[in-house]
Amino acid sequence: MSDDRVTTGAESIPPSVKAAAAWSWRLLLIGTAVAAVLWVMGQLKTIIVPVAVALLLSVLLRPVRDGLERRARFPRGLATAVSVVGLVVVVGALISLAGQQIVAGFAELADQAVAGFNEVRNWLAEGPLGIDSGQITEYWDQFADSFTGDGASGLLSGALGAATTVGHLLVGALIALFCLIFFLVDGRAIWTWLVNLLPVNARERMHQAGRRGVVTLSAYVRTQILVALVDAAGIGIGAAFFVPKLALPLGVLVFIGSFVPIVGAIVTGAIACVVVLVSQGWVAALIMLAIVLAVQQIEGHVLQPFLMGHAVSLHPVAVVLVVAAGSLAAGIIGALFAVPLAAVLNTVILYLHGTDKFPALGTDDHVPLLRRRPSLPAIAIAGRTPGLRRARGESVEGVDPFGESAEVPPTVPEADDDGAR
């Protein structure tokens, strides 16, 4: 009899193929789950977007609320009210002071930008590159359709995806304001309730990971606001030397665009250069380009590393890919929220895998368990079962097996066969 073993079909498959197959179905399952979550979020974007905005604003206003509580001795409710009202007053004042100039300037800014892009298109067709004008026109039409097209994938439709009507906009504003107030007043209780939905063994680790995620989100929000202010001030002041009437609209546009990391700064800087090109010519446009590059270099090499540090440690390639994926999935709204979401997930996942980016936080802060339904009071029983008494080290003599104490009967002499005692 031969000792050679017959190789079955399963045994003939190389280990690498088995590993690839095992990973494949898991990745397909994860991808399906992610797609389902994104689809549900798309259907509920009118609710999810205001809640996300409220979360970002609560992270921004939390230091203000804490300062009012500690220094001014305000109660939590009053400190929250002052913080929210102060935010509304500041935003309203900025809009009222610069609103008319911004609205009038944006109309002229749009005309100047279109004229500038047309001039660039003519140079590409008639200049040394000699690109076919038909191709340029086709690309230009596609670019314009991305802003003004009727398709749901357009950037403008993506930006207005959560507020297609005035009613949706008002509902979103009310939801954001309502959630902001309760996030500031009772955020800890809300987080405790969410964590207690998890299995008991996972609650503590998820609580610690969530604390670090909040630190990351706080660093991102504060840094992006400061970076946006620096970018808007630098480019706006530079534009004031060439197009004074459009300096404020350009500054506002740069401020808004800076909340989309890397991509927003590039696009808004290009618009500023094109506007100066149309108004003042090539020399002024090159000077404006130098100003834009200088501001972006200060942002990338000074502000971002100094302010964020390792709190939002995402590689620029990862940032670009995340912004692109977010814009494809949800337009401008996706581009705005993609980077903070990726940064928080990065911090949380790293902590769950053993890498703590914020060891100084420690683990002394614990999430409390929610109150459970009180158990029924124990019924007092006169006697205890023998097993319970043995467990307590008590004597079990004279104990009825049903829990009632009984006296030990006296010893009775055995009777004779005839019944005599």
From TrEMBL:
The chain crosses the membrane at residues 20-41, 47-65, 77-99, 169-198, 219-242, 248-274, 281-298, 318-351. GO terms for cellular component: plasma membrane. It is found in: Cell membrane. Keywords: Cell membrane, Membrane, Transmembrane, Transmembrane helix, Transport. Coiled coil: none annotated. It comes from the Bacteria. GO terms for biological process: transmembrane transport. This is Permease. It comes from Xylanimonas cellulosilytica (strain DSM 15894 / JCM 12276 / CECT 5975 / KCTC 9989 / LMG 20990 / NBRC 107835 / XIL07).
